[in-house]
User: What shape does this take?
Amino acid sequence: MTSPQPIPLDTLIVCPHCDAAYQLQRPGVGEKAKCQRCGTVLITPRRKAGLQIIAVSLAVAILIVAATVFPFLTIKAGGTANSVSILDAALAFSDGPLIALALTTAALIIFIPLTRVLLSIYVLVPIVLDRPPARGATQAFRLSEALRPWSMAEIFAIGCAVALTKISDLADVAFGPAFWMFAALVVLVVVQDNFLCRWSVWTSLDKT
Ligand SMILES: [Zn+2]
Assistant: This one.
């Protein structure tokens, strides 16, 4: 009895969602490889996509920093107006027992999304320029992917919008520039995540 010919591992691709394994076939330009069982997109090669992703990542990084310091909302009550930024809100709790909560919140809505975009810029720039991967790029990309479920800027923005519509009965509340920056962030983060072909990045990192 002869055992079946072993399939070389680098010609296999496994669906990250349902674990179905496929023999690798590179899709042509403009085509996508999808999992036949669950429809998850496996490969989306796009020419020049890397450059666009870097541009979007830079925009996200700038927006996160700006959204942190610019006023998030203005509350008018009893003839006085108060503008509050995310930074003010986080610092308001910094001397009480709620400091852990304040730090966790700040991490989830500011530092983790910021770390993720900076890591992806670090990983993608050498790949797009056809240079050897940056030092520790594999670990950087793995960390960025691991942080993905913990990046909550968009959830925060939606939560704030809901909370603000509720308190708008009690006081005169107006959204500041930072709110609209967060709204733009929600869209850009989704764009960045969907345009990034993880398979292409891993393959580029594997070449070394
Ligand atoms: Zn699947």
